[in-house]
């Protein structure tokens, strides 16, 4: 729905601006010089202003239209005018930000993505002053009385005749508009940055756990910190980078007296952080945390049946949900409507299951003690395996606990057959 609304607003602004410059009488003479390029350029600029207000990165096409004068070449306009210079600057800034946002660069070279996107400051400054040069001219209101295009356009050869009622038209540059679009959100963003700086306090690291598959668990405490399930925080380690802040989903429950995150080595920053914590004889690095942010996931507790699906380290928000459920059962929370949870976790490596085993084992034991063995139905799927290991697992399938995880629920090999899974759930829980 939001995408449809966004697209509709863009179409409305484009058509409105296009018709205004294509039909407005005050731009009659300007259109005689520039043709339809005037309407196309100003309509595109209107959409650009709108999207910049929303801090979205528009597609790098039809971004700028450099208007030619009778005695000016394109190169002259670009490099000798405010509109030309700022147009080049914001175009280059957009190209750098868009190209560095590609998934390959964002995942493998996050630092390039992070630092390049701070060029947005240059982009917005350039956008704000882009129109100050008044490169697009329109006829002045006073001149419209002395030389109305509908009356005087056909008599341009008599404009200089003192006896003619048509005087030579006078023009003025179009006032800058971009700054009006970005001023309010820009002020809000400045206050946002100030708030982030104020909230980014140093935390006390209470526990460090190194799990298999290069997964680091940090348990921390911060004064005044309050969280809900499904939220995330931004983490900064000044000893690695004073500017970089990386988002991590909270894996702890709101009922716990600490908050925790699980960090997997997927880039230079995370690898350096894990390597720093692995050095036993070095002091614990200083960590700053900003947050929590994001919408909470407590709605899962408002349904009788919930289906949770996670892949790899993406299981972290469900760790918070399952922990919170465990605490709600311990404290007999009567507001908990959930009667059944189906949990699917797909992993590529065997070691990835290790850090989550303790939580699942605790939930198994808790459900048994409360007589709710069927409350949690979890299925673990291993996608990275060889035939030898699968054969070994098949030979030990009749054992009470799974040979891979030690849990009562057996590990499945391959990916879930979702049609079958959803059909089974729908049959078990009819409307």
UniProtKB/TrEMBL annotation:
One of its GO terms (molecular function) is superoxide-generating NAD(P)H oxidase activity. GO terms for cellular component: monoatomic ion channel complex; NADPH oxidase complex. One of its GO terms (biological process) is superoxide anion generation. Its main location: membrane. It is found in: Cell membrane. Its cofactor is FAD. Residues 195-299 form the FAD-binding FR-type domain. Keywords: Cell membrane, Electron transport, FAD, Flavoprotein, Glycoprotein, Heme, Ion channel, Ion transport, Iron, Isopeptide bond, Membrane, Metal-binding, NADP, Oxidoreductase, Signal, Transmembrane, Transmembrane helix, Transport, Voltage-gated channel. InterPro entries: Cyt_b245_heavy_chain, FAD-bd_8, FAD-bd_FR_type, Fe3_Rdtase_TM_dom, Fe_red_NAD-bd_6, FNR_nucleotide-bd, RBOH/FRE, Riboflavin_synthase-like_b-brl. It comes from the Eukaryota. Residues 1-17 form the signal peptide. The keyword Iron-sulfur does not apply. It is a multi-pass membrane protein. It catalyses: NADPH + 2 O2 = 2 superoxide + NADP(+) + H(+). The chain crosses the membrane at residues 74-98, 119-138. PANTHER family: NADPH OXIDASE, NADPH OXIDASE 1. Component of the phagocyte NADPH oxidase core complex/cytochrome b558 complex, composed of CYBB (heavy chain (beta)) and CYBA (light chain (alpha)). Component of the phagocyte NADPH oxidase complex composed of an obligatory core heterodimer formed by the membrane proteins CYBA and CYBB and the cytosolic regulatory subunits NCF1/p47-phox, NCF2/p67-phox, NCF4/p40-phox and the small GTPase RAC1 or RAC2. Interacts with NCF1 (phosphorylated form). Interacts with NCF2; the interaction is enhanced in the presence of GBP7. Interacts with RAC2. Interacts with RAC1. Catalytic subunit of the phagocyte NADPH oxidase complex that mediates the transfer of electrons from cytosolic NADPH to O2 to produce the superoxide anion (O2(-)). In the activated complex, electrons are first transferred from NADPH to flavin adenine dinucleotide (FAD) and subsequently transferred via two heme molecules to molecular oxygen, producing superoxide through an outer-sphere reaction. This is NADPH oxidase 2. It comes from Bos mutus (wild yak).
């Amino acid at each position: 729905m939001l995408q449809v609304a966004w697209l509709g607003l863009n179409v409305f602004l484009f058509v409105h601006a296009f018709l205004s410059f294509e039909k407005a009488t005050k731009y009659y003479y300007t259109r005689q010089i520039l043709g339809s390029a005037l309407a196309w350029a100003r309509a595109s600029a209107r959409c650009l202003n709108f999207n910049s207000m929303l801090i979205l990165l528009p597609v790098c096409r039809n971004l700028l239209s450099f208007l030619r004068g009778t005695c000016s070449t394109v190169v002259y306009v670009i490099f000798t005018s405010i509109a030309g210079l700022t147009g080049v600057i914001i175009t280059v800034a957009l190209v750098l930000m868009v190209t560095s946002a590609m998934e390959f660069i964002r995942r493998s070279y996050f630092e390039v993505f992070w630092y390049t996107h701070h060029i947005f400051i240059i982009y917005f400054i350039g956008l704000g002053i882009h129109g100050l040069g008044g490169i697009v001219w329109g006829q002045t209101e006073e001149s419209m009385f002395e030389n109305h295009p509908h009356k005087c356009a056909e008599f341009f050869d008599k404009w200089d005749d003192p006896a003619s009622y048509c005087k030579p038209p006078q023009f003025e540059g179009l006032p800058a508009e971009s700054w009006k679009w970005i001023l309010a959100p820009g002020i809000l963003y400045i206050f946002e940055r100030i708030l982030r700086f104020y909230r980014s306090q140093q935390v006390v690291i209470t526990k460090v756990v190194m799990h298999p598959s290069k997964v680091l668990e940090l348990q921390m405490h911060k004064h005044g910190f309050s969280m809900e399930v499904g939220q995330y925080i931004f983490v900064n380690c000044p000893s690695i980078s004073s500017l970089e802040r990386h988002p991590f989903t909270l894996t702890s429950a709101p009922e716990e007296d600490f908050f925790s995150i699980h960090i997997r080595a997927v880039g230079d920053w995370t690898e350096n952080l894990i390597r720093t914590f692995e050095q036993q004889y070095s002091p614990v690095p200083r960590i700053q945390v900003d947050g929590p942010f994001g919408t909470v996931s407590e709605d899962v507790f408002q349904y009788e049946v919930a289906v949770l699906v996670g892949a790899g380290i993406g299981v972290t928000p469900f760790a918070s949900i399952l922990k919170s459920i465990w605490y709600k059962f311990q404290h007999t929370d009567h507001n908990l409507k959930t009667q059944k949870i189906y949990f699917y976790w797909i992993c590529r490596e065997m070691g990835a299951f290790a850090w989550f085993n303790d939580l699942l084992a605790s939930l198994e034991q808790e459900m048994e003690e409360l007589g709710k063995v069927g409350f949690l139905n979890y299925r673990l799927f291993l996608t990275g395996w060889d035939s030898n290991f699968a054969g070994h697992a098949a030979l030990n399938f009749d054992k009470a606990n799974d040979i891979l995880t030690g849990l009562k629920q057996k590990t499945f090999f391959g990916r879930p057959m979702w049609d079958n899974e959803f059909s089974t759930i729908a049959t078990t829980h009819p409307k």
